């Protein structure tokens, strides 16, 4: 298929079943040389027919840790990485559009992964777009001299700005692919969901998307561009420290460092990519934005997985206490007057399971329910889910319903012969698994179509406001109410005290890895 965009003509690849894919579409100029650590610059028009048959390179990144079940080496990587991919359903005209932001802790990820193949979703009548964005030090470095170059006195949010530029490309071009630019759903998992949440909080995202699906997202405390806050150094001071470590006196010296050794050296130095509160891209902390009702006024699906932390133990779990007495003593030392509530929810009867559940709830569960509450307060429907599906390959490795395990179901990849990370526990290819996948795909794509998740011969998914309703995805979808009673209230109290004290961030300060929680009586300003 050949079609003309606002920038030039593209030739796509027809797949079985009349779905057409356009791969490796450049949506911004290469962010290299003088454009490294600059906002993306829109792509320039071209003449002739440009083939769109191969995925563009993944953004430059370091390998996953050895033994990670998420490890999947990109086929190609480059600093020149601002590409996107589009899958078009047959005969598409004014079709709903879904724009996918991949996860990977803002450090890794590749839309060319088979886990994100949009073919099956496109078969349901939705135009699917997957996006590359700058990662790691290339996407999130702040520095005073970079801020001085900016007319907005900003630096550090280049990955978010890439996503915004991709959404602008969708607005301006997606009609040529049969999509409706006035009906765009932004969806993502993990760091992709975090990015979508941040875009909901950004005035620059206004009007570029009309619904959101947030999978295992998390509400973080972002560093300020200038000045310490919530126990975090400023983003600019982090950038200055890294520049000194690299022996670079100014942006010219930083830009002169070849991309591959730069990315490797920054990762080895412990650079932690995070979006920055800069007053332009992000005006304030996300939780404050939610409290003020300033987030995007759009319908939402939001949820998390029962076993989130099972595949992320090194990130969230410190060495566990040896016995119940040590566990309870440590909890009392961390949670003080909140310890009775904590121990009632996360008892010493099974220390590991309680530690896993507490970390999951404090990071993913609290975030999901707080977002659902905020959107409901704003007057827009929010649909909460809890993915609790288990299958034998997970259980064999004690990874039941692990972080990201919903992806093969929503993308229709059950039974796919290739495209999997090598260590990923494969779901069985049987009628039950395919039925669950079909239901999830239908719920998500119907939501993209008209804002109401629905699936044939499946239960009605009621919005959160209906008695704190949610949908549990186990062997089959099951509607329920009041997810994990008391969970949200406990962790909201912890965050409220941290906000009031102003000395603790809440990135991965969760469960047994938490510092002592500030005392009672404090409330956010």
Please bin the fraction of helical residues.
25-40%
> What's the alpha carbon Rg, rounded to whole Å?
22 Å
Unreliable runs, pLDDT <50, ≥5 residues?
none
Oligomerization category of the chains in this entry: single chain
The number of helices is: 17
Report the sheet with the most strands, covering strand number, pairing sense and barrel closure.
11 strands, mixed
For the residues shown, what is the average pLDDT? 96
| N/C terminus separation | 57 Å
The fraction of residues assigned to DSSP E strands is 5-15%
Number of strands: 16
The structural class is: alpha/beta
Q: How does the overall form come out from the CA principal axes?
A: globular
User: Major sheet: order of its strands?
Assistant: 3-4-8-10-9-11-12-13-14-15-16
Please tell me about this protein's structure.
This protein has 525 residues and is α/β, with parallel strands linked by helices. The protein is built from 17 helices and 16 strands. The chain has an eleven-stranded mixed β-sheet, with helices on both faces. α11 (324-335) packs across α12 and α13 crosses α17. The longest helix is centred in the last third of the chain and has 27 residues, at 351-377. It is globular. The N and C termini lie far apart (57 Å).
């Amino acid at each position: 298929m050949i079609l003309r965009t606002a920038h030039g003509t593209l030739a796509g690849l027809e797949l079985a079943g009349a779905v057409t894919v356009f791969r490796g579409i450049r949506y911004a100029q290469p962010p290299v040389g003088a454009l490294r650590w600059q906002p993306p610059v829109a792509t320039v028009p071209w003449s002739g027919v440009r083939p769109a048959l191969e995925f563009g390179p993944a953004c430059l990144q370091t390998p996953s840790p050895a033994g990670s079940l998420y490890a999947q080496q990109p086929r190609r990587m480059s600093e020149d990485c601002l590409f996107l991919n589009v899958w078009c359903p047959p005969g598409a005209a004014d079709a709903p559009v879904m724009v996918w932001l991949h996860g990977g802790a803002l450090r890794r990820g590749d839309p060319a992964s088979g886990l994100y193949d949009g073919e099956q979703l496109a078969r349901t009548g939705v135009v699917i777009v997957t996006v590359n964005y700058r990662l790691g030090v290339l996407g999130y470095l702040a520095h005073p001299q970079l801020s001085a170059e900016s007319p907005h006195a900003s630096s550090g949010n280049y990955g978010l700005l890439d996503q915004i530029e991709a959404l602008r490309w969708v607005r301006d071009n997606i009609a040529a692919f049969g999509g409706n630019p006035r009906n765009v759903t932004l969806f993502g998992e993990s760091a992709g969901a975090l990015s979508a949440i941040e875009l909901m909080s950004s005035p620059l995202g206004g009007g570029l998307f009309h619904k959101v699906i947030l999978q295992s997202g998390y509400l973080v405390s972002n560093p300020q561009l200038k000045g310490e806050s919530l126990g975090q150094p400023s983003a600019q001071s982090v950038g200055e420290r890294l520049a000194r470590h690299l022996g670079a006196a100014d942006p010219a010296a930083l830009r002169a460092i070849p991309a591959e050794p730069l990315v490797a050296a920054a990762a080895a130095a412990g650079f932690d990519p995070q979006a920055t509160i800069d007053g332009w891209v992000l005006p304030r902390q996300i939780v404050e934005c939610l409290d003020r009702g300033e987030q995007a006024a759009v319908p939402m699906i939001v949820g998390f997985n029962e076993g989130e932390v099972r595949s992320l133990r090194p990130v969230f779990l410190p060495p566990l206490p040896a016995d119940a007495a040590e566990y309870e003593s440590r909890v009392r030392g961390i949670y003080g007057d909140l310890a009775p509530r904590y121990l009632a929810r996360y008892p010493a009867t099974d220390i590991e399971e309680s530690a896993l559940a507490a970390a999951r709830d404090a990071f993913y569960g609290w975030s999901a329910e707080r977002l659902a509450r905020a959107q409901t307060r704003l007057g827009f429907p929010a649909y909460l889910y809890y993915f609790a599906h288990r299958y034998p390959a997970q259980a064999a490795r004690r990874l039941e319903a692990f972080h990201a395990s919903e992806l093969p179901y929503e993308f229709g990849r059950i039974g796919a012969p290739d495209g999997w990370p090598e260590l990923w526990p494969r779901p069985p290819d049987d009628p039950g698994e395919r039925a669950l996948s079909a239901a999830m795909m239908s719920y998500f794509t119907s939501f993209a179509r008209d804002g109401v998740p629905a699936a044939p011969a499946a239960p009605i998914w009621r919005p959160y406001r209906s008695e704190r309703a949610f949908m549990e995805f186990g062997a089959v979808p099951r509607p329920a109410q009041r997810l994990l009673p008391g969970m949200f209230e406990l962790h909201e109290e912890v965050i409220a005290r941290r906000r009031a004290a102003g000395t603790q961030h809440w990135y991965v300060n969760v469960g047994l890895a938490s510092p002592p929680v500030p005392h009672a009586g404090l409330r956010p300003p």
